[in-house]
Amino acid sequence: MGRNQWESLLCMLAQAVTNKSAIFEENGSPITKHKGFLSMKFLDYNLTVEYYRTPFIVVLGRRPITAPPQVKVIVKVDQLHWRSQQWKGANVIVFNTGHWWNRQKIAKMGCYFQEGGTVNMTMDTMEGFTRFLRTLMSWMTDNLNPQRTHVFIRTHSPIHFMNGTWDDGGVCDTITEPEKDPKKLKPESWNNQYIGNMTKEMNHGKWKVRLLNITYLTGFRKDSHPSKYREPGTSPVAPQDCSHWCLPGVPDTWNQILYAQLLSMEFRTE
């Protein structure tokens, strides 16, 4: 979902640039499905729009040798991803949380949480998420200048699988119109409550951490997923994609909301 929003923002910004040759990936990396770091430069505006694939934002690592056999991978809830060194000094940061902090996904991965060098075999997903948010808050306080960096935390992006999950035959290709009945929307993700509490806690004094709340409006657009119409070369029997979004599409609205919030803050740079 972070990649969806990043690509949408690139396309929207590029519409205002006359000289398209002045837009390029700084390291020459192709803009294809990517597991690392991408940085698009808008040369005429001295602007970079960067994307970091850090699914948990904290460190995802290999199991310790001494860990029980059911431990396949560990999430270090007290240690931000090493890419965080590159986030310092940014004018705007949008954190995308929630999608990977999923009880079913974490259980299937054989994932357990580690804190202080010790794997905690009893820490559940909600507690791990809370510990992670505390780590993120501490990192922001220690490493960001609130006069320079505007931080947004985006809420959970709804999924719309029918008749199963993503790896159990779930589909959405038959849905061709937005939902019109609010009563039929799925319950809001539990992640959002914790994210909302964090932004309230960080919204004091010099700090103005903003909530980019996209969950409710996005819940109506069950018609806007790639479903079976995925990237070229995808096997016809591959799982449908009912979690990510077609572009142009829903993430454009997320960016319009982001832009509106920046305008309301009278955001400017030199």
TrEMBL record:
Signal peptide: none annotated. Residues 1-260 form the Trichome birefringence-like C-terminal domain. InterPro entries: TBL, TBL_C. Belongs to the PC-esterase family. TBL subfamily. This is Trichome birefringence-like C-terminal domain-containing protein. It comes from Hibiscus sabdariffa (roselle).
